[in-house]
Amino acid sequence: MKRSTFATLMAAFCLVPAAPAHAATIWDGDASKGTGVFGAVLCSDPASLTHQDDDGRGEVWKVNKPLGLERCEAHDIRVGGTEYAWREGAAYYLGWDTMTNTDDAGTIFHWKSNGTNDQHQQNYPVLIEVEGGVLKVFHIKVGERWTLAWSTPVERDTWKRVALGIHTSSDPSRGWVEVYYNGRQVHSFTGRTWDDLGNKPRWGSYGAEVVDNRVINWMDGMKVGTSYADVS
């Protein structure tokens, strides 16, 4: 018996794969969710990563790095209870609000390479500092060759929105970084952004130069996605 036209059309339709859903935000690091959103908290006592109420914002993260210590950082992200699997050849966007109590907060973000010592060629390919009242975005090439990619004066105790687009590649001609500040793209550059064992983000306060400073870095609206719209 000849198959009906309707049945033929339905069979063809079933063979067409469903279009994938839009990949929205990968990670939402809202402070109300607790420190389990991070892969690890790298804060030695009495340093701490806590959350507190902020008028008009609700819960925000508070990184407290006391005198005498050089680090208090949130390391990596967890999605669905497990550490996220970052990969080479992908474009990631990371966005967050930051406010520090000092003009010299040290490194507030770095795209940290996995491994130690001779296990990596770039300790941190991308790094953001607050130094002397200036927010600075650096690209660090193989061999600890630092390049100041972009900078802007900032005020302490004032919120600002920072976002980075990072295309991960160990090939300097294929990796790229986009820099966004307070809602607009302010810079972009190409270069190696993926080290031998891969990379993960860290946020907080870090650096030998801030051992004698008490640094508080408040953070809010922390997101990771695959487009700027996901984290803006």
UniProtKB/TrEMBL annotation:
Keywords carried by this UniProt record: Lyase, Signal
Family annotation (Gene3D superfamilies): 2.60.120.200
Signal peptide: 1-23
GO molecular function, one term: lyase activity
UniProt entry tagged with the keyword Chaperone: no
InterPro entries for the chain: Polysacc_lyase
Protein name: Heparin lyase I family protein
Protein source organism: Saccharopolyspora griseoalba
